[in-house]
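Hey, sorry to bother you again with one of my protein questions. There's a protein on my desk that I can't quite get my head around. No rush at all, and the record is pasted right below.
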Amino acid sequence: QVQLVESGGGLVQAGGSLRLSCAASEIAGSGRTFSSYAVGWFRQGPGKEREFVAAISWGGGRTRYADSVKGRFTISRDNAKNTVYLQMNNLKPEDTAVYYCAQADALQSRAAEYDYWGQGTQVTVSS
């Protein structure tokens, strides 16, 4: 069983920054470690469907971003700490959402391809 826990959300003014963290614990007994999984960030705003934000490959060498966050958000990982980060700069009110991290076998942008999900962390950007 894998548990993912997000943190770092909060209230910030437009133009501000936040760094979200996704920490993994209790790695599944498949013989694989957290560092062998890709991790993605998704978000769900009020009245909206869950959407892809960013993803990073198991080794951190490949990343993928939604067009809406390119140039503003950066995803990274520290496998020694079993943690993936999402640095969010120049935040906009439309970035307001609950942000979730999830784990997949490969770098993906489709939510259906992710197995384990965290509970989410709220990000609110005021204008």
The chain has no helices and eleven strands.
